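Our platform keeps sequence and structure together, in a single record for each protein. Such a record has a labelled line for the sequence and another for the backbone structure tokens. The tokens are whole numbers drawn from a learned vocabulary of local backbone shapes. The remainder of this section carries one protein's record, kept here as part of the documentation:
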Amino acid sequence: MGTEDRAAGKVKQARGKAKEVEGAARGDTKRELAGKAEKNVGKAQEKLGKARSKSKT
């Protein structure tokens, strides 16, 4: 499960960063903030995956 969380976290980070950049370029603050939030969720999920991987070994 740790590897899956890490991979999903990376995907969320990339998707969030894309939304953040798009929102900033268009002047859409709501989309920019949604992107930042998704990026942070992805970071947390990646850290959770790393912790789960370490606890299994």
